[in-house]
Amino acid sequence: MTTLLHRFTVAKLLRVACCRSVYSGPEAYPVFSRQDFAEDDGTWEWKKLHNIRQRVVDIQNGINHEGDKKIVDDEARKVHLLPHKIYSKPEEYYPLTDVAKVVYGNKTKDPMPKGIKHKMDPDFIRPEVQDLLKSLTGRDPEIVFAEQTGLYTHMPRVRLLTTEQLNQEIKKMDEKFDEMLEMPPVMLEREEIEETIAFDELLDGYEEGKLIFTDITVDLKPDERCMVVREPTGLLRRAQWDERDRALGVYYPKCGRSLHKDPVFENPQVAFKNQFHKNILERILVEFVPDSKEFIHYTQMVYDEIDKESQYDLLRSTRFFGGLAFYLAKHKSIDGLLKNILENKSSLPDAADLVKLFCLINNESNTARNLKDLNNCDDFRIVQVYVQNDATMKKILELSLQTFQQIPQSAQNF
Amino acid sequence: MVRLSWLLLERVRNFRKLQTTRERLVARNAECLFAGDENIQVYSKLDGVPRLKNQYAIRLAKHGCPNRPFYHIVLAKTYDDRDTEIEQLGTYDPMPNINNEKLCALNFERIKYHIALGAYLTRPIRRLLGLSGFLPLDPTLLIFAENLRRRKAIEQKIKSKESEDSEEKTETEKEVD
Prior knowledge:
A: mainly alpha; 4% strand; B: CATH 3.30.1320.10; 3 domains
């Protein structure tokens, strides 16, 4: 009796019980309390479903009860009510009939000429190098989630959580860390496009300027868009990368990109004085493509400035530290960074990670030959071998290394 | 169809030359048969495609400000106003920018579609599509370019003659002095 009652009927009964009068008689309506329904798992509908699911599982396992046939017939009747094909996207519900595509030809997809592809630096892609760069950047939440001027910040919220919920929130923050510290790619410089389509000599001198034609068909990626230039001499050629970026900026602008070059990238002395290195790198990321000449040239300019003034702390636990370390290791100028790690940060494993990076990128150096088994050596030994072989600031690094020298056991007992 | 005119008679009357001619129409590409005669002249338009009244046309619609034109490439009917449109197929900027470039945008997919369904292309559109390489070059453009080159050559000759005359004058003045 108690298990079959619905929750709303309980409230009704309680109301009725409160306004029970003398004339209604003793126990006209039964009085139930909340404790009687504590064992109730839910509404009767859910109970029925739970029962049916259990029954189905029993049938699959081979156990039979009364009334199995009815359940099986009901389930079987539901199947033909489902659509015969389950659509995953709304586009499949409403297929658009593009007459031109079907009857008159396909879209004007123009593949890039002569197999020009975007090439990543092969040393940067290796998972060992990526792991080392991530461990070097660090994960300081005060810097990663610091307030950014111009962005809207919410008021802080206080919530009571269980341990399981706490662990889930920590997992979410780890994923956010990876998002914020995602390194911009280091790519090889893109080759110039030099392809002529036609040369009409009879058109010589018809105009005094160039004509740039762009293709405005819908649903094309910027690599597939055809851009063509006709010069006043009558030459028809494909547009070069400068002209391509400018035309895309006119017809398909992106937030943060501008068509004209900012003189900050040419004369950044004032910005460097005020320690705006990170802002300039973010600006470069937004405005330029990682393939382009300008991106590579300007990022290397910023990295050289940081290396000169030894201001590595500006980029620590940001997304740009990996690029810094990779650039320095490639051009064999790690000594400033090593000194910073040993003196200011005073952590040997980070210094050993740097030297491991150097060995992975420069396989033919003296340190790599001497350190063939990197896992078996101590961190101290790894850095020592590097200082002896390939370091330019030898004496300074040896001095800073002495602090990490292990005291022999005989001296410890004193 | 190509229109020819035949010179039948030439006479002088009161010191005035008069000509009597007759015209006839001839199939296209057949005027080469009559090319040898001196008395025959070909009066055909080079762009000889007929333009109907009720026809879809791809043409330039002028927007912008006074002394600053800017054209939209537009699909419209021939009897519509210049600036009305059914669909926009691109833009054309006739004024060069800082880098001495003229920008033109063309939606080739939709242009293909409308040409296949029989749209009429006006002369500037034919020139632009020929310059972009989508269609073969328009002969009016080549004639225009050749005339420009001839005019420039003539102007250069005049300038060189004037400079020579001025040099001769200075030399003669010096000699006199």
